[in-house]
Amino acid sequence: MKILRASDYRRMPWKNGGGETVEIAVFPAGASIEDFDWRISMATVASDGPFSSFPEVDRTLSILSGNGIVLTIDGGPALTLDLHSDPCPFPADKPALATLVNGATTDLNVMTRRGRFSHRVIKQPTPVSLSPARSLRFVLAIGRNGITSGSENADLGPLDCLVIEAGATGDFAISGNSGIFLIELYPESPKFGAS
Length: 195
Prior knowledge:
Layout: E1 2-4, E2 10-13, E3 20-27, E4 38-45, E5 49-50, E6 57-65, E7 69-73, E8 79-81, E9 88-91, E10 96-100, E11 105-113, E12 117-124, E13 128-130, E14 136-141, E15 145-149, E16 152-156, E17 161-164, E18 172-174, E19 180-187
Antiparallel strand pairs: 1-17, 2-3, 3-4, 4-11, 5-10, 6-9, 6-11, 7-8, 7-10, 12-19, 13-18, 14-17, 14-19, 15-16, 15-18
């Protein structure tokens, strides 16, 4: 079992300088915020303001703590996101403005570069059993969870992340009652003529 511990995540400034992001995982390894194929991170939003723009990138936003935000994407209707909301997918190259509901909030960001990867984020109650799949998967613990796969057992602390490689065999049983975020990443075939 490969587990990423919250205490080991990399901290870095937002692309627009408006705050700090905590990087959980990125591909290729060591990629910057300019050239990743996919990226999973968390950020604390402490004031109202615009989100960073990422050309040719799709993004899914989920609330991890706090009272949430009101999100306006490309001048569309305002969306209120809180702890009970489903993950919210949107194009990361469209203007997005966040207004805090009541104080700072922490969010989960999953981003994939179009033509290279796509993704899906599912908020999942626990306990749950995950069967083998073709996608690379990350399981982000909201609280404390136990994991069993075959004869292996491990514990996830809050915001720790289990990595399940594509094609991994056997089921993963996840115990606890705090829920998880299941992140699925799918490679895309490059379009004809793309470099």
